[in-house]
Amino acid sequence: MSLEKLNAYCTSKLDALKAKGTWKGSENIIEKIIAPDWVIKGKLPNSSEDKNFGPRYLLVGNDEPHLLMNSNSYLGLTLHPEVAEAEEKGVRNFGTGPGAVRFISGTYKPHIELERRLAKFHGREAAMIYSAAYAAIMGILPLLITENTLVVSDQLNHNCIINAIRLSRPASKEIYQHLDMNELESILSAYTAANNNRRDSAIKRVLVVTDGIFSMRGDHAPLDEIADICQKYENGFEEGIITVADDSHGVGAFGKTGRGTEEYTQSRVDILIATLGKALGVNGGYVVTTGPVIEYLRETSPLYVYSNPITPSEALAATKSLEILESNEGLERLKKIRCLTSRFSIGLGKLGFETIAGEHPVTPLVVRDTNKTTALIQYLLQHRILATGLNYPIVPKGDEEIRFQINANHTTRDIDYILDILKHFSVLPLSHCS
Length: 434
Known about the structure:
The protein is α/β, with parallel strands linked by helices.
């Protein structure tokens, strides 16, 4: 059958994205990584090495070395030799893939060991691996949301949470303004009062869901306050209030020992979802919670039951990353990204740029204009810096930004280099940069 009409439809939609300035365009293709010796050896740079540059990236069709400032690999473990060796060993022992979904023949010992380690790391009864954190959210929330469930969600929650709620059929859905705890409490108070005025409660369960770290801004949810508010109103609902957090950007990058937003806020949610593909540098997602909830999800979650897991070799690599995170080396890597993040954030402020202060290595340069964001990204690329511009609808109109991400393979010279490049942009007319 002809695709002419579909082609025309797709082309018109792409033209509309370009007209709005929200077209992402072609992707940069990384062809090669050039890493200094200290990265290849799995070390952090000493004081002398820190005066040199960190890894550089070559793009297809461009042989100039680029500084990567948009990687989620916060601890720099994607290039760690011990992590690579663990994955290579897994391939030799178990092959390149699981060969089936978990309940058929796709469960391997490395999967079970990683789940055990993750549960212990987070102080939970049990853990369960998904192919990705996005798949975990999509595969979990609809299983917890019934026709008698109220879902309450932060305004700036990640796209995966938004789509998972859309896939569900809750009795009601409420969105509170970003980090507005007064509005969250008002919502729960109003529904508690409504339930009390009904003979048969319309809302039996409440699901309060939030990002831990908000990936576009680097700020965090006050999980301690959320827990206190939910506990205050929990008895107003027959099946209580369940708190869920996606802390994919927090685990391994936030908190004194890298246990994420829970550690930073000294609190705990009922169900924690996170990723192996950011700070831990491998691939896959996971959930940690109570044993009965995990067992229920293993039996019912379609994105677990009917989808292949990560490979056994990836599970071994993630286990090694977790071991490094829990070691003195892990603490040193966390300390380093906090220091570099502070240096970069303070530097942006001195240059007159707007940013959002915080300890997380996501450091946004808030531009608040689509055209200027695009111009700044082009300017950075001209100076061999890879960064990500975020325009509407990825972020709300007026919140357009450049998202910079610090990782442990950066050096102080890298940070100072990009600040120097940004210093010159700040004094150029926009027309010179577009």
